[in-house]
Amino acid sequence: MSLDRRTFLKRTGAAGAAAFIASRLPAPGAASAQDMTVRPDPAAKRGGTLRYAVHNAPAHFDVHQSGTVANIGPQSPMYDTLLRRSPKDGQTIIPDLAQRWEISPDGKKYTFYLRKGVKFHDGADFTADDVKATYDRIAHPPKGVVIPRTPLFSTVGEIVVIDPHKIEFRLTESRPKAYMLGAFASGWNIIVRKKTLEENQGNLRQVMNYPGTGPFRHVARRDKEVWHMERNPDYWNKGLPLVDKLDVYHMFPFSPELGSSFLSGKVDYARLLDPVSWRKAKEMPGVTAAAFNQSVIQAFWTNMQKNKALADPRVRRAIHLAMDRHTLVEVVKDTAPMQVGGFVYPFHEMSTPRAELEKKLGYQKDIKPAVQEARKLMQAAGYGQGLKNLDFVVRDIATFKLWAVAIQAMLKEHLNIESNLRVVQTSVWFDEAQAGNFDLAISAIVSTLMDPSDIFSAWYGKDGPQNYSRWTNPVFHDIANQVERELDDNKRRMLVRKAEDILENDPPLIPVSYEQIYDAWYNKVHGQNPSTYFGIYDVVRWDNVWLA
Amino acid sequence: MRKYLARRAVYAAVTLLGVSLSIFVILRILPGDPLVAILGVEGHARMTPADRVRIMADLGLSDPLPLQYVHWLRDIAAGRLGKSFFRGDTVSELIAHRGPISAEIGVLALFVSWLVGLPVGILSAFKPNSVPDGVARALSILFIAVPGFWLGMLIVLASLFWFGYKAPIVIVHLWENPWQNFQIVIGPALVLGLAQGAYISRMSRSCLLEVIGEDFVRTARAKGLREGIVVMRHALPNALLPVVTISGVLLGFVLGGSVAVEQAFGVPGLGRALVIAVIERDIIVVQNLVLLYAVIFVVVNVLVDLSYAWLDPRIRYG
Predict the structure, then answer these.
(1) How far apart, in whole angstroms, are the C-alpha atoms of residue A134 and residue A128?
(2) Are strands A417-424 and A166-171 parallel, antiparallel or unpaired?
(3) Model confidence, pTM
(4) CA-to-CA distance for B72 and A209, rounded, in angstroms?
(5) For position B253, what pLDDT does the model report?
(6) What is the distance between the alpha carbons of residues A271 and A276, in angstroms, rounded to a whole number?
(7) Which of A21, A217, A360, A458 is the most exposed place for a label (fewest CB within 10 A)?
(8) How many degrees, rounded to 5, is the angle at CA B98 between CA B92 and CA B104?
């Protein structure tokens, strides 16, 4: 092949230009995330007040100790985390106070390089000591402090400050990278000052305004009404936040008050809308409405210690198969948005894909084959005549009350299981569930991560805090241990599917459905679309949002 | 008069003591764990028994119950209403911030009830069994029967879907912006006032029907007085006494009804604060707010009794 001078110059020029452009593009894969610190949209306009309505007021102010969006909603804009999820997709893990990180080849050492020049709202410098104090508290809470995310860091042995802007987390055993990075990027793990923790004996429950490094600063709070914040002019991420003021209104989720406040234009962005208001919002011109997945399973538990029949896996499998899940989703469609799923988040990449799941007994639209199988199982277990007088404890929330009646009817019609509904207030439900005072009990439970390891330990673990059925299955627990330690994604996926099979045949709970979140906002709000987010706890900063 | 006042004060104190004891006992008997609200469902699930003991002690809920009661009464006597054990806000601050809105609603509701109830009652009494009387009676029964919170929700939905309107969502005091404040209080005041107005119209109708059959009314008419003067100067003052009495009782209904109606309208008053406190099991807030409502009720009833002497000079307290 001949190559003349002109062609040679053209090709070399093109290759050089391509190399230059490629060098400016983010590298693919996990490393690319490290180059993706949130930047202001070049088209963004500055200024204005964003009025955001989310959940009722928090019961206390300690974000680490909380398990509810009541804290995350109003408080997160005042704080930063070590890593965060990108507001573009809600999934990609990107730098925050740590501008980059390294993971040792054996997965046992996570080194974070912290940003310099970051200041807390009280003017103090942010250093690695603050990160250490924060994570020491989360991983090993002091006496009297309960932090739901502690188990995520159970393998964190030592946290070592190398220098003021470099810190190492040394793990006693490795965990999958996605799991650990997900834990560090969780919106719950806000960085607080070491001094703040020391001054308050490690407990921030009643400390309303403790300094953060976040894009917004506290201005005023009216209990149970509104939390006013203003732009932090010294924010480390120059150019952010884009709005001058942020007002967070406290309103009960799914309430007519929240819906009417949004529909009347009293707030610009509403989270946790009820389906009726959300559908109305969707039809409104100048409004965008989005639905996305929440980190919650709706289920009912079967008490295996109290009730001999329910200890039999065949009976539990029969109950599981007797549920018409598509109807259960339909039953609450005007109260809360739901979707059908099994024992692992149906939208997680490692769980059985939805199309495949809906071919399985218990998830099909036509429930006749599942009911036939369920009856056979009851017969084989010696309960062909059904069961009587089951105490069915129902949490006093609209969805659970609607479901309880439907489930009661399904159990009676399909398996001749008779139950008595006992509706109790939320706190009583948890008392009764933990004390084991129920045969059946319906509620919802949350997880911090979408990762199966988190739910395998919290929901189905032998001593899992939400294993209300007191379920154990040595084979499952062994697989769950492997899932927690396996670093290869493909092998992990296989293990998760194996675990799913065990759960299908020996159910620790009966899945009812998986929740979705309904958000809506006026189109003048730019920079946030949660359609691909998971849950409402990670992308909650509002720093890149602008009004026009 | 002084003797009477002293006696009423003693009765009132005994009543309030009984109320305080009832509230205290009921709140402690009721099932439910405030730690679920404080820690969230997940935090509560992961809490150890030692954590529970420590947190309950921090909240002052681990003392023996009689001691907790005595401490509460001692605090009230010293003017300390305690703190919400969730966020540390004092109950006094809560009352100072939200009380004026609820008080406005109560007073406005009472005003509406008289403004509507009394003329309707008079009209009905002076034209008994006429078409206007029939309409007035039917409407009275309707407003008595319809629950305030339901009517409130209808009003909120109708104004939203027909006019895209909703009242301000945070408290605006009268002295800050009278127009916005009016928008907040007028809905609940109308709903509560119309329901109470229905009672007042029925009561004033029956009392007036009794009075206009009396000799002195016939004499007044025989003297050639105009009907308006007969009603306003002779009949009405004599028929008002039971209406004033029932107004005192109705204020109790207004206080009780405001809890649900404020919730329906989304008005951030004391009633709504009480609902949220009950949901959160914020015992300190609940017990102090209920006691405050009881104090208002007792004081209003004493004032109603005292107003008899002013309305009817024949009545003297000894």
Answers:
(1) 10
(2) unpaired
(3) 0.83
(4) 29
(5) 80
(6) 14
(7) A21
(8) 125
Say which DSSP state A76 is in: G
| ipTM attached to this prediction | 0.77
How far, in Å, CA of A101 to CA of A92, rounded?
Answer: 15
Nearest to A58 by CA among A79, A74, A80: A74
B248 touches chain A (CB under 8 A): no
Per-residue pLDDT tens digits for A196-236: 999 998 889 889 999 999 999 999 998 889 999 999 999 99
Please name the residue of chain A whose CA is at the shortest distance from the CA of residue B52: A144
Spatial distance between the Cα atoms of B1 and A527, rounded to a whole number of angstroms: 71
Q: How far apart are CA A402 and CA A332, in angstroms?
A: 7
CA atoms within 13 A on the CB side of B246: 20
Greatest mean pLDDT range, A331-335, A447-451, B225-229: A331-335
Q: What burial class does residue B65 get, using C-beta atoms within 10 Å of its C-beta: 0-12 exposed, 13-18 middle, 19+ buried?
A: exposed
Supply the mean pLDDT for chain A. 91
Task: Return the DSSP state at A77.
Answer: G
Q: What sign does the CA torsion over A115, A120, A126, A132 have?
A: negative
Parallel, antiparallel, or unpaired for β A387-395 and A417-424?
Answer: parallel
- A365 interface with B at CB cutoff 8 Å: no
Distance, in Å, from the CA atom of A428 to the CA atom of B16, rounded to the nearest integer, reads 30
Residue A508 phi/psi, 5-degree rounding, is -80, -20
Task: Select the residue of B51, B169, B171 nearest A144 (Cβ to Cβ).
Answer: B51
Choosing among A55, A62, A140, A146, which should be mutated to test the B contact, i.e. which has the most B CBs within 10 A? A146
Whether residue B43 and residue A264 make contact (CB cut-off 8 A), yes or no, is no
B154 in reach of chain A (CB within 8 A) = no
Separation between Cα atoms, residue A387 and residue A385, nearest integer Å: 7
Task: Supply A226's token pair.
Answer: 């509104």
Interface contact flag, B87 A59, Cβ < 8 Å: yes
Residues forming a β-bridge with A299: A443, A511
DSSP bridge pairs for A424:
A395
Q: How far is CA B260 from CA A300, A453, B148, B254, B267, in A?
A: 31, 44, 8, 10, 10
Estimate the crossing angle of helix B34-45 against helix A426-435, to 10 degrees: 50
